[in-house]
Amino acid sequence: MYKTLRILLVPCILLSVACKHKKPVTNLILYDGVYRGDHDFVMSTGEISHSYIRFYANGKVQTLSTPSGMKDISKRFNLQDDALIKIVGTFTVVGKNISFTTSAGSPYVAYNGTILDSSLLHLHSKSYITGNETETDYSFIPIVEWK
C-alpha cells in the first residue's frame, strides 16, 4: 500500500514542482471531440467495450467505457446533465506530459502519459476500482464523425 502511494506521489510531486517553473500548456489537447483507446476489452456481459476520454477547455476531463457506438456516446459526454453519471476530473499538461484522475466519487482511476501529437495520446492508467493497469494509445475523433 505504502509503495503504491509512493509510486503515485513521486510523479505528482515532480509534476507539481514542474508546474511552478513552467506555464501549463493545454493547446496540445483537442476539445471538439473524444479520444478513443486502442485497447478494447470484454465486459462481464460478454460485450466488447471501448474507452473514451473527452477534455474540456476549462480543464475538466471526462472518461467513459461503454459498448455503445459513437452516436450514443455523444449524449453521454455532457457535464451539465445531472441525470448522467459522470466520471470526471481535472487534467494538467506540462510540456508534452499529461496527468489526471477521474472518479464518480471514490475510488478513482489515475492517468499519466504523453501527448504524442494533438490527435494521439499514450496513457498509463491505474484503476483503484479493479486494480488493473494498462498502457493505451488514444486517437482523436472529431465531433463531426460522431454522427
Relevant terms:
alpha+beta; Lipocalin; 8-stranded antiparallel β-barrel; 2 helices; 43% strand; globular
Description:
The chain contains two helices and nine strands. It is of the alpha+beta class. It has an eight-stranded antiparallel β-barrel with strand order 1-3-4-5-6-7-8-9. It is globular, with a radius of gyration of 15 Å.
Provide a short characterization of the protein structure.
This protein has one domain (2-146): Beta Barrel (Lipocalin), CATH 2.40.128.640. The protein is built from 2 helices and 9 strands; from the N terminus they run H-E-E-E-E-H-E-E-E-E-E.
Q: Any chance you could write out the topology, listing elements then pairs?
A:
Layout: H1 2-21, E1 33-37, E2 41-42, E3 48-55, E4 60-66, H2 70-76, E5 87-94, E6 97-102, E7 109-117, E8 120-127, E9 133-142
Structural class: alpha+beta
Instruction: Tell me the number of strands.
Output: 9
- CATH class label: Mainly Beta
Strand order of the main beta sheet, please? 1-3-4-5-6-7-8-9
The CATH topology corresponds to Lipocalin
Average residue pLDDT: 80
Give the overall form.
globular
What fraction of residues sit in β-strands?
35-45%
Poorly predicted runs: 4-24
The gyration radius over C-alpha positions equals 15 Å
CATH architecture: Beta Barrel
Query: How many H/I helices?
Result: 2
What is the H/E order? Answer: HEEEEHEEEEE
The biggest sheet, with number of strands, parallel, antiparallel or mixed sense and barrel status, is: 8 strands, antiparallel, barrel
Report how far the terminal alpha carbons are from each other.
44 Å
Helical fraction equals 10-25%
- Indicate how many domains the architecture comprises: 1
